[in-house]
Structure formats: structure tokens, C-alpha cells
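anyone else get weird line breaks when pasting these?? whatever heres mine. first is seq + C-alpha cells for prot A
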Amino acid sequence: MADDKDNENETPAAPDEAEAKTPDAPQADAPQADAPAAEQPAAEEQPAADEAVADEPTAEAAADEPAADEPVAEAAPADAAQAPAAPEEQLSPKERRRRSRSKHDGESRPARSAQERHAERQATRKDKAVRRRARRLQERAKAAERRAAAPAPEPLPPVHAPVEGRRRMRQGIVISDKAEKTITVRIDVARRHRRYEKIVRSSSTLHAHDENNDAHEGDTVRVIESRPLSRTKRWALVDVLERAR
């Protein structure tokens, strides 16, 4: 009786639980659990494929890049051959010296004594003097050639032509003969006024040269214009017309 009660109290196990407890029973859910594991390698292979695609150059880039075996064409020499030669820049001597000094590498010269520096300056001056002399001789030769090739210039008229004009002559009365070889002559002038028709009398004095002291005070003399003989003498005695009484 007791055994029957125990058997009644025991409930039959669920079919699923019984199958789960049996080790040899096939598991129906095993393929579903393995499915994600099978998909995981495929997911890992996809980034690797993307990296491979990224590493591969595009068709346009491959077309632009030259092949490894193809020689690269040198365009620089062809361009240089086609381009015309640039004219040389004309530089002044000062600009040439400035550019030569700008190319100095900055290295200091070896130490030299005062005698060596003086000898170098003397040699430089001598070299410059030789070149300067040669250049001057060359310029003189070129100038002589130009003068020889140029046509003969027309003679210019003299500035002071040796033309002797008619010298003036005056007649007057000696008013003083005190100076040596000099007389003072008064020139009396009588002329008619242009408007009033009146006779206007005037006088002027001049100094004349008398080499022999021939004229005396009161004599009527004739004088002629001459070169400047002193500060005031511009006349010379010609002859004595009338002696004073």
C-alpha cells in the first residue's frame, strides 16, 4: 500500500525535460545556435574585403599613373630646346660688383700682415692703371678715326674781324697842356633845335695824346680817334691848325 502511494505521488516527467536529460537525444536547437557562429566569419571577412578595395587604385588613377616599366618622358629638355634663348641682362659695373659681393660664402680670409695688404693694394692699383691706360688709348684711337672720317667743317667767320672802319675826327681848342704828352681839348658844338629852330651851343672836353708836346694852350688843333691809350685818352693829335697869339 505504501509503495502504491509513493508511485501515485510521483508525477510523470514532461517529455521535453526527459529528452533534455537524456544525453543521447538529438538537440533540435543546435543548428540555430551554430548559425550565428557561421555568420561571424563572414562578417569578419567583409572589413578585410573593404580594406582590399580601398587599397586598390581606381581606374582613373591607374590610367593617370605611368606603368612601372614605361620610361618617364623628360619634358624639360624639349621645352628648353623649343624656348628661345633669353637675352643676357645688361648690368652696370656697380650692379655687377654688388652681385659678386652678394655671392660671398662668408668664409674669412687668412690673416695677413700690413706689408702683405699694402703689396696687394699696390698690385691692384697697378693692374687698374694698366687697364685704364689701355681703355683711354682705345678711346683716343676711336675719336681720331671718327674725326678722320667726318667731313671737314666749314671755317667760321672771325669774331673780331680785322676790318678798320672810318675813324672820327674832331676840331677844338686846347684848354690845358699841363700834363706830359697829353692835352685837353674843348670841342664846341652848335646845332639847330629840331622843334624851336633855335641855335643851341654846347661843348665837351676830351683828352688827346701829344707825343712831342707840340700843342699849347689856346691852339686850334685837329684830333683823331685811336685805341685806348690810358684810362681817359681815346684820341690822338693830328696837327695844329692855328697857334695862339
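and prot B, same format (seq, then C-alpha cells)
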Amino acid sequence: MNTPFVHQFIPGQADDAPTLLLLHGTGGDEHDLLDLGRALYPQAALLSPRGQVLENGMPRFFRRLAEGVFDLDDLRRRTHDLAAFVAEASATYRFDPQRVIAVGYSNGANIAASLLLLRPEVLAGAVLFHAMVPIVPAELPDLRGVPVFMGAGQFDTLIPPQQTEQLARLLQQAGADVTLHWERGSHALNRSEVHAATTWLQANASARQ
């Protein structure tokens, strides 16, 4: 496989299981979300790339100019690069490209949201943990029938609640079926949030079969 992404791939344990595209947060790598992926959907295949941008030595999926201020040109390019990686990986590892569900945390959730908005054909659904609006496209994509789970903290010190709500509205305006789950916490994932996402994912993984 001729890809610039360092990554891990773990085959699925059932033919009808989806592939989870695991997208780590700032400072993470291709190993960070493997346990989370197994917890969310034990039978799923796991595809976990490492972000290609370094910020003070910490991997990310796209550049930012300041906290919460994204380099939109870089975000667009990296989003298309990630879409191409998923397509190449599906051919190499022989998983169904129509059954890919993104699971992203923080920076990873932001590029997953960018995939939904700029390359909607790539994802059959998404689990977005602690995401904000990455980009507002000139034209909204058609996300009718695409299920999206958004986990958020009411006291998140990095993402204001209004950013979470704005992203939920943007995806809903594009037609996505958005489930917004709030926790009385900050930016870290907690067990209750993962449990809610697990229940949601088991119910929605086959939404676009």
C-alpha cells in the first residue's frame, strides 16, 4: 500500500461489521484509539492513521493558526488526502468502502466532521467526540440518512457549547440524523460518554447498508 499515512489496520471479526476509521486527538498516534474502537464495536475492522502535521512535536490531522483558529487551506487539502487514504485502504485491506464510520476525538473529530462536509461519500456515519465547526462549505452536502453521534462536555474548556451546537445544526441542515449527547464534564472522554456512543453505534452501524 503506497500511502503517506503511518497507520494500523485490524481486520473485522464479522463479515457484516463496519470499518471504524479511528482519528486521534492532538498528540495522539495510530495506537491511541484502538482500545476505544474495540469497546465501541468489538466485531468491527479498525483503520487508524496517524496525523501528518506536527505541532510542537505532537501529531495532528491539519494545521491551526491559533487555539480554535484553523488553517482552512491546509484543512481542505488534508481532508482530501484522508479521503484518498480511506479509498486506497479499502482496496488494499478489502473492506467495504460504503461501510466506513469515523470515530474521532478532538482534532480527529474535527477532520471527521470536515470529511462529512467536504467528502460525504467517504463516511456512512460518524462518532464525533468533542468536535467544533471545522469549516463551513460553500454548499452543504447531502447527508440525508447519515447518522452522527456527537459527544460533548458542558464545561469543555477548549470547545464552547455554542460551537458544538453550531456543528450539530450545520450537519442537520445538510440532512444528517444527529444525536447530541452532553456530559457534565470537560474535554476528556468518560465512561458514560463511551457507553452512550456504544449503544448508539450498535443501533446505527448498518444505517447505510
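btw re prot B: The chain has one domain: 7-204. The first helix runs from residue 34 to 40.
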